Amino acid sequence: MSALLEVEGLTAGYGAAAVLHDVSLSVRTKQIVAVLGANGAGKTTLLRALSGLLPAERGRVVFDGLDLRGVKVERMVRHGIAHVPEGRGVVTELTVDENLRLGSLWRKPRPSNDGIYELFPALARRRDHLGHQLSGGERQMLAIGRALAAEPRLLLLDEPSLGLAPKITAQIMALLRDLRDRTGLAVLLVEQNVRSALSVADEGLVLSLGRVVSRNDAATLAGDADLRHAYLGF
Amino acid sequence: MDRFLYLTFDGLSRGAIYAAFALALVLIWRAARIVNFAQGAMAVAAAYAGYSVTNATGSYWLGFITAVAGGLLLGAAVERVVMRFVDHSSPLNGVVVALGLVLIIQGVLGMIYGNEFRPAQAPFSRDAFQIGGVALLSRYDLFVFAAVGTVVALLTLLFTRTPTGLRMRAAAFAPDVSRLLGVPVGGMLTLGWALAAAVGSLAGMLVVPTELGLHPNAMDLLFISAFTAAVLGGLDSPVGAVVGGLVVGLLLAYVSGYLGATVAPMAVLILLVVVLLGRPDGLFSKAKARTA
Ligand SMILES: Nc1ncnc2c1ncn2[C@@H]1O[C@H](COP(=O)(O)OP(=O)(O)OP(=O)(O)O)[C@@H](O)[C@H]1O
Ligand SMILES: [Mg+2]
């Protein structure tokens, strides 16, 4: 089966200095691919380059047959790509309900937020609270819920477990697994929390200094002690 | 007492105009973090366009519509052609460019229309009716209240009840996140400038009949008063801008009524300095930290 997202030789960075070098990867429908690596490895940069927040210098990014270079950031979501940025990106001045509506505003007809509230009952209780009144876990649910409101085919998730209790992290991972199995969602999951990422991922790739140093199925990566010591620090 | 009442109503009527103009400043501040020092000049340009149409057609209302629509277009053009290309890493850049625009607009208007005052027509009588033996309000004052009230109501509806309003707020607070969610952030910015300039032009049209007439510098006092009002209200707060506008209008009315009209502009400047020194964040600002 051909990949939903196909990346070849992607090079990108900030200004003159490239951060990502010649990165290739692919994500299929109904597949979770974990992106692992130490701080500063270039994981966030990779997601930003994929969603167009950062222009790619070289390389090919093809999504379902469409060349994504030249697609504007604000059009990405219409093609089925949702990006939950690092630090979550809840608009703190807007209410929970407004944040969620923003996620599906471009869709016609506009869906209600009820489906997302069903997924995250904790958010339903806080629908009229402002973003800055939420806890870290609630913000993460809101950011993910808002991305799902667009009914994406590919979800780019940047460190969803950051600052969360293990229990909430586990819930989020279970949700990703469920969405994958039920709706065929494809996920590119950036994580520091290697164990929980590999617990749901089908495949993983390890970035180091902006290069892919390993690409394998999740179980193999989890069992590779040398790799863990060298790049993942445990 | 009668005099006090008269001055109060006069102040509220002026204040409503300042409120509208201050609201325009706040709209741009919220959307782009720029104090649009060119707003007075833009409103003058729109008013001249309206003046020309009124002269050619004999209809005040056609001129009025021209001015507001002209303001809308001018606002969009200023954002698209000029402000978009200003490096906003230093807030001073936007200010300098805006001041440059003032010089250009006033220079061009001076070349086309000359630098003398053009008497401007009012659509309604400015003679106050007698209420209980006191002259309090004119038909024109009522028109001002109705026009400003309508603008405030429409803006409130736009920002709180419509998808476009939600997009505009999100784009201003968190541009990158908004883009990822499919919001055309650049378009929202253009729309913000266009709306603000239209509201500013409307305020300009309202103020002209209350002054000596139309002149390239006709909005200078309006700008300073409304800027003071906006700062008083916290620059970020639409409610603050409206309240600030009314406060400044009342202050101006009392000062010119009791101390003389020549003192009034100075009183505004003193208020501005006091506010900037005492409460630079305004009376209505909420302390808030952007975290994400
Ligand atoms: N805005 C920026 N301007 C310049 N350099 C940047 C910028 N953002 C990141 N970098 C650099 O790019 C490199 C990769 O950063 P990136 O944020 O992609 O790492 P990461 O793998 O996401 O790290 P972390 O796990 O800490 O989030 C780092 O060396 C960083 O210093
Ligand atoms: Mg990162």
Automatic annotation (TrEMBL), chain A:
The keyword ATP-binding applies. It comes from Paractinoplanes durhamensis. PROSITE patterns: ABC_TRANSPORTER_1, ABC_TRANSPORTER_2. The keyword Nucleotide-binding applies. This is ABC transporter ATP-binding protein. SUPFAM superfamilies: P-loop containing nucleoside triphosphate hydrolases. One of its GO terms (molecular function) is ATP binding. Belongs to the ABC transporter superfamily. Residues 5-234 form the ABC transporter domain. Keywords: Amino-acid transport, ATP-binding, Nucleotide-binding, Transport. The gene is livF. InterPro entries: AAA+_ATPase (IPR003593), ABC_transporter-like_ATP-bd (IPR003439), ABC_transporter-like_CS (IPR017871), BCAA_Transport_ATP-bd_LivF (IPR052156), P-loop_NTPase (IPR027417).
TrEMBL record, chain B:
The chain crosses the membrane at residues 12-29, 60-82, 94-114, 142-159, 180-208, 261-278. The keyword Transport applies. InterPro entries: ABC_transp_permease, BCAA_transport_permease. Keywords: Amino-acid transport, Cell membrane, Membrane, Transmembrane, Transmembrane helix, Transport. Its main location: membrane. It is found in: Cell membrane. It holds the Pfam family BPD_transp_2. It is a multi-pass membrane protein. The keyword Secreted does not apply. Belongs to the binding-protein-dependent transport system permease family. LivHM subfamily. This is Branched-chain amino acid ABC transporter permease. It comes from Paractinoplanes durhamensis.
